[in-house]
Amino acid sequence: MAINPKQISVSKIYPGNYTNVLRYWHDSKSVDFLNANGTSQTLANQPVGGPVGVIFRPGWIAQQAVGYVDLSYQALGSVNQLEYYATPYGSGGADYAPFANGNVIIPSPDYHKDVRTDITNGITVPSGAYVYRVGLRVTGGDVISSGITGGSATPTLGLGPAVGVGLTTTPTTSGFFATVVGASSRIENGSFNSSNAWNDANMHAVTTDTTYKLFSVQNLGGAAASGLGQASGVYDDRAAAGKLSGKDKALAICEVCWLVPDEPPKRDDVVLQPAGLVESSVYTSTSPA
Q1: DSSP 97-117
Q2: Model pTM?
């Protein structure tokens, strides 16, 4: 997708004194609190420490999740960022299979990962959200499909909710992908693309918590089976014999953006009486005439 050359001169405004990045990272914990009636309640699996959202327009909160997937090897199991750096590079052979699909890793904002660990189970879009953008970029090195059984001459990486019939890069309420397509069995370093839903008629309306993952995909083709299916995979061809030619691993940088309805205003959001007065001591809009 072409980038407007004037876009680089546009400033971005972030929440929290307009300085904080919209970090998706968060921890999940059970939270005890007193509800509006003074009754103690416990909410399980609540996000703590984020995600951060910005008021997109009154009544709507925009959230952005950004993470990465290592394309140098297929991570078989849960891999945090410390293990990621310690893992030797593979060449698509028996030791480390080529990348086929995997969850996006959301790095912890902490330098010391033992304080707050990475999120390794992917980008989970909450029920009730509306996905309006999916973006994908390959960075650090080319990835190839040559030497893989069934490998495609036009290797394609796709970020989306699931592979199967009906889901393509065209935004729909059922979900959609962003893909980068290679040529001559290679996806070049720096390749990027995004899919954007410009109105609520084709935003992905999420009805249950949905994990967006990265897949090596192929076009199923045909009107009866249009959509993206699982492909054979790709890998960083600079990785061989446990070593990498080049300082950076080949990563896929993954982005998912969505809107969630804001909660209605609370009592503290309206001024019922002059500052310093007790509401019940004077006639206000809450008292009968």
Answers
A1: PPB-EEPPBB--SSSSTTTSP
A2: 0.79
